[in-house]
């Protein structure tokens, strides 16, 4: 190979410089004109064993049937909900009728019904066995932020962006009560596990404790309390304490009998997006945009361990009666943590955008996650029962 001593200028090859000539059969070359090549596509690692791709836009909500380990429901920005079977490419039912984002959905405790809530202000109740709509429940017209079934019956509680809270009897398709008192969107809420109390949190930074029969409420205003909108709440299994998380990075424990703040869990430095009470101990978990999952000892109001993420934590879920907690993150990963040691025992890859919600199948063997990437993914977690 003849090269100039200088690095400047052009470099030429002569026939005498050829060392070995290789003949190429043109039929073996790819036909670039007949094949569209996308050079931006990269292969992502995927730990899921099943992916549901029926939606055409971002997904926000997922629920698993409490009696059928294969039945899952999802809802999203494409104004649609689906019921589908894990592992089946052909067994899915589109839940038609909503005219805006399906923001929330949930199965009744006996698995008989599925309720879907939308920003169109409607809740549709579906027979989960027949796949047919049972009734449509309409409030004041404001978008539905969340809905919950009564733990022992077919009553539906829902919070609206117009600051109202509604209670319906799904069997009779009638409204039982409307709760007014919040001054802004009702962002979170639930029945107590014994079904006797309703708790709702709002973007107005308040928590209200309601008597579901009379509609009377206690407005929690202890000191300190949240200074910004509430994002999440969870109630202990003895129905005595509510844990509330806020945009202001604080978590408070509220006595449901008195409405007083009894303790504050202070360690986060950004909005608390999710909170969950362990079903098997006096522990709780909180996740925040500060990239931390914190496991708390509620009896001592102190953190047990802090689990560091690469990006903000968007959702969490205790895995049955086990000591493990699953989290979803802005980075698209689902992680499983040992609450005793604070160690990440599994990172589940597959999503390429924010993970919005998590659910566990009835047999506790699979974890289902939904994401802004438009997919629902199913991961095996049988070793974490």
From TrEMBL:
Cellular localisation: Cytoplasm
InterPro entries from the UniProt entry: Quinoprotein_ADH-like_sf, WD40/YVTN_repeat-like_dom_sf, WD40_PAC1, WD40_repeat_CS, WD40_rpt, WD_repeat_multifunction
SMART domains: WD40
GO cellular component: cytoplasm
Entries under CDD domains matching the protein: WD40
WD repeat windows: 52-86, 95-127, 137-178, 179-220, 265-306, 306-347, 348-385
Pfam families cross-referenced by the UniProt entry: WD40
UniProt key word Cytoplasm: yes
SUPFAM superfamilies linked to this entry: Nucleoporin domain (SSF117289), Quinoprotein alcohol dehydrogenase-like (SSF50998)
Alphabetical keyword list: Cytoplasm, Repeat, WD repeat
PROSITE patterns, per the entry: WD_REPEATS_1, WD_REPEATS_2, WD_REPEATS_REGION
Protein known as: Angio-associated migratory cell protein
């Amino acid at each position: 190979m003849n090269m100039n001593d200088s690095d400047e200028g052009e470099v030429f090859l002569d026939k005498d410089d050829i060392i070995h000539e290789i003949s190429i059969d043109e039929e073996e070359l790819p036909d670039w004109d007949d094949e569209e090549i996308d050079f931006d596509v990269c292969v992502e690692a995927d730990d899921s064993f099943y992916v549901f791709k029926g939606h055409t836009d971002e997904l926000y909500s997922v629920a698993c049937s409490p009696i059928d380990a294969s039945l899952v429901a999802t809802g999203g920005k494409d104004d649609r909900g689906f019921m589908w079977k894990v592992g089946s490419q052909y067994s899915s039912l589109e839940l038609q009728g909503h005219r805006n984002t399906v923001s929330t959905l949930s199965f009744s405790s006996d698995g008989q019904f599925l309720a879907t809530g939308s920003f169109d202000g409607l809740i549709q109740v579906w027979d989960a066995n027949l796949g047919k709509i049972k009734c449509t429940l309409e409030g004041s017209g404001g978008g539905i932020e969340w809905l919950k079934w009564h733990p022992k019956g077919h009553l539906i509680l829902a919070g609206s962006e117009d600051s109202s809270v509604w209670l319906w009897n799904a069997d009779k398709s009638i409204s039982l009560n409307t709760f007014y008192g919040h001054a802004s969107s009702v962002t979170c809420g639930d029945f107590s596990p014994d079904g006797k109390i309703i708790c709702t949190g709002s973007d107005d930074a308040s928590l209200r404790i309601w008597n579901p029969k009379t509609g009377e409420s206690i407005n929690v205003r202890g000191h300190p309390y949240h200074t910004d909108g509430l994002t999440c709440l969870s109630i202990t299994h003895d129905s005595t304490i509510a844990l509330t998380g806020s945009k202001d990075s604080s978590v408070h424990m509220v006595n449901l009998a008195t409405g007083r703040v009894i303790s504050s869990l202070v360690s986060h430095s950004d909005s608390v997006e999710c909170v969950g009470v362990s079903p098997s101990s006096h522990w709780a978990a909180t996740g925040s945009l500060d990239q931390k999952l914190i496991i708390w000892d509620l009896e001592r109001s102190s953190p047990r361990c802090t689990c560091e993420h690469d990006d903000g934590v968007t959702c969490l879920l205790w895995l049955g009666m086990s000591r493990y907690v699953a989290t979803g993150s802005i980075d698209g990963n689902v992680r499983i943590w040992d609450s005793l040691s604070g160690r990440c025992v599994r990172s589940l890859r597959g999503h390429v955008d924010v993970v919005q919600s998590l659910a566990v199948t009835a047999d506790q063997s699979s974890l289902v996650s939904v994401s802004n990437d438009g997919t629902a993914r199913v991961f095996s977690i049988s070793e974490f029962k």
